[in-house]
């Protein structure tokens, strides 16, 4: 069998999907574009692959890898489609989303006119749990596991399947948050959970809370989207008569890539607390 020699890059935009293919043997580069399909972005993605392979005169068996950049997660946020989202935080800090930061855009002269953005989680979907860590990670009070189970049952009873968890000072020690996550899955196995110590392990509770909630909010969409494309890519190539898993990578906001498996099974990571969250690297 001939070696896999074609690398394909695909960027899905709102109007067009842009495709570039590189032949590793000859160095030939071919570009094309095809209309995007907002109702099902995977359709435009696959049409683009077919189109660029036709221009090269190659089949799917020649594809060595596919890399993909997409704004599916960002679009969900911009379109205001964040819903069915819950939040768990430390007892006494249920208003962290309202308090936010002191900074006002354009200076304090604008403070009269500036209105804080709407909170990403309604107040009635916030639950607090007992237990407290110090800033250095030492335990002041042990985690109240019964309050965690009560919060998990609250979300389960209301069908709130997506939950973000941000406990005070969990950047210093993730133990409490990890236990909260485990209890959530015990009580509510169908839940999608993000914990801040794995999303943004840095100080400042508001930034950590918001980034964690954004991560949780977009996980289901990205997981379904990436799984759908990965499965349909198998139709393009075979090995010994069986569908082949074509190496498939998704671009992160820092310019790097992750494999589809990592995108589906890992949590979002963010190393700079004041940047926009990386919306591509999801569990």
TrEMBL record:
<dbReference type="InterPro" id="IPR008040">
    <property type="entry name" value="Hydant_A_N"/>
</dbReference>
<dbReference type="InterPro" id="IPR043129">
    <property type="entry name" value="ATPase_NBD"/>
</dbReference>
<dbReference type="GO" id="GO:0017168">
    <property type="term" value="F:5-oxoprolinase (ATP-hydrolyzing) activity"/>
</dbReference>
<dbReference type="Pfam" id="PF05378">
    <property type="entry name" value="Hydant_A_N"/>
</dbReference>
<dbReference type="InterPro" id="IPR002821">
    <property type="entry name" value="Hydantoinase_A"/>
</dbReference>
<feature type="domain" description="Hydantoinase/oxoprolinase N-terminal">
    <location>
        <begin position="7"/>
        <end position="186"/>
    </location>
</feature>
<dbReference type="Pfam" id="PF01968">
    <property type="entry name" value="Hydantoinase_A"/>
</dbReference>
<dbReference type="GO" id="GO:0006749">
    <property type="term" value="P:glutathione metabolic process"/>
</dbReference>
<protein>
    <submittedName>
        <fullName>Putative hydantoinase A</fullName>
    </submittedName>
</protein>
<dbReference type="InterPro" id="IPR045079">
    <property type="entry name" value="Oxoprolinase-like"/>
</dbReference>
<feature type="domain" description="Hydantoinase A/oxoprolinase">
    <location>
        <begin position="208"/>
        <end position="267"/>
    </location>
</feature>
<dbReference type="GO" id="GO:0005829">
    <property type="term" value="C:cytosol"/>
</dbReference>
């Amino acid at each position: 069998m001939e070696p896999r020699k074609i690398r394909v890059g695909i960027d899905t935009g709102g109007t067009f999907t842009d495709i570039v293919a590189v032949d590793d043997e000859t160095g030939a580069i071919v570009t094309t574009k095809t209309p995007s399909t907002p109702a099902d972005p995977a359709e435009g993605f696959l049409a683009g692959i077919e189109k660029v392979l036709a221009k090269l005169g190659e089949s799917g068996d020649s594809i060595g890898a596919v890399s993909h950049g997409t704004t599916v997660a960002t679009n969900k946020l911009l379109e205001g489609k964040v819903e069915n989202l819950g939040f768990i935080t430390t007892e006494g800090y249920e208003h962290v989303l309202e308090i936010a930061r002191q900074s006002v855009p354009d200076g304090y002269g604008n403070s009269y006119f500036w209105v804080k953005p709407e909170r990403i989680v309604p107040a009635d979907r916030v639950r607090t749990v007992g237990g407290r860590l110090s800033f250095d990670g030492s335990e002041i009070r042990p985690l109240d596991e019964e309050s965690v189970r009560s919060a998990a049952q609250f979300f389960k009873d209301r069908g709130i399947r997506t939950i973000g968890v941000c406990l005070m000072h969990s950047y210093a020690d993730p133990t409490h948050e990890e236990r909260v996550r485990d209890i959530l899955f015990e009580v509510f196995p169908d839940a999608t959970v993000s914990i801040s110590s794995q999303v943004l392990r840095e100080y400042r509770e508001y930034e950590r809370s918001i980034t964690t909630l954004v991560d949780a909010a977009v996980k289901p969409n990205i997981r379904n989207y990436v799984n759908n494309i990965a499965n349909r890519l198998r139709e393009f190539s075979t090995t010994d008569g069986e569908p082949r898993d074509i190496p498939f990578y998704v671009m992160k906001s820092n310019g790097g890539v992750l494999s589809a498996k990592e995108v589906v099974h890992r949590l979002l990571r963010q190393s700079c607390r004041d940047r926009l969250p990386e919306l591509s690297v999801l569990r």
